[in-house]
Recover the amino acids of this structure.
């Protein structure tokens, strides 16, 4: 039942009869990946669709000079295809289900409207990719870092007496890779905010004293 619920909690498979999910998806192979472990490489698992049962996963490409470019970040319940030239790396411990394309096709035959939902999910993923490209093209590094911090706090933050506390779960190098800048730039940015009294830092936990004011500036 837990594995059926995993799929039904995803926007793609929500409201699909549990029996159909059990027949086609619950017996698929799955694997747990440690934080920073590579989940897939270009050309691997072409016959599978990846379903992220838990965790967060960064999808990226590598330029010939070695520079990494983040394409999208997958969250729990997201799906991704192996038919790309991308790499996937766990931002935290992840559990990935490898759904054979043939099994997915059989499910679509039984649930035709699933194909429309898939188009919507892929559209959202493409929108996310364009947002990342737009940030790199039109926003400077400080703006990108501010937007990253504000969005992470809004999605994962917890209200405390001192402000909104958010566990970034990433070190400065990982944030730099995600944003597209150097580790030194990330360090200088967070240290600058702390000196201004806007945030308080304790390892990977950041407390934003006035999230509304910070967000109004970061997302303007």
């Amino acid at each position: 039942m837990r594995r059926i619920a995993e799929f039904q909690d995803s926007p793609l498979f929500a409201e699909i009869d549990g029996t159909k999910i059990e027949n086609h998806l619950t017996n698929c192979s799955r694997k747990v990946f440690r934080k920073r472990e590579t989940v897939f490489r270009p050309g691997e698992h072409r016959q599978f669709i990846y379903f992220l049962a838990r965790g967060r996963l960064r999808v990226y490409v590598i330029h010939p000079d070695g520079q990494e470019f983040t394409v999208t970040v997958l969250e729990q319940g997201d799906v991704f295809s192996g038919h790309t030239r991308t790499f996937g790396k766990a931002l935290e411990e992840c559990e990935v289900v490898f759904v054979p394309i043939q099994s997915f096709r059989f499910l679509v035959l039984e649930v035709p409207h699933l194909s429309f939902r898939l188009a919507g999910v892929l559209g959202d993923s493409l929108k996310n990719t364009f947002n990342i490209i737009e940030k790199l093209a039109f926003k400077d590094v400080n703006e990108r870092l501010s937007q990253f911090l504000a969005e992470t706090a809004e999605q994962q933050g917890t209200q405390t007496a001192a402000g909104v506390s958010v566990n970034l779960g990433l070190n400065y190098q990982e944030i730099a890779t995600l944003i597209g800048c150097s580790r030194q730039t990330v360090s200088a940015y967070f240290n600058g905010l702390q000196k201004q009294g806007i945030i308080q830092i304790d390892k990977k936990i950041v407390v934003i004293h006035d999230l509304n004011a910070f967000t109004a500036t970061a997302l303007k």
About this structure: The chain has a mean pLDDT of 85. Residues 114-138 form the longest helix (25 residues).
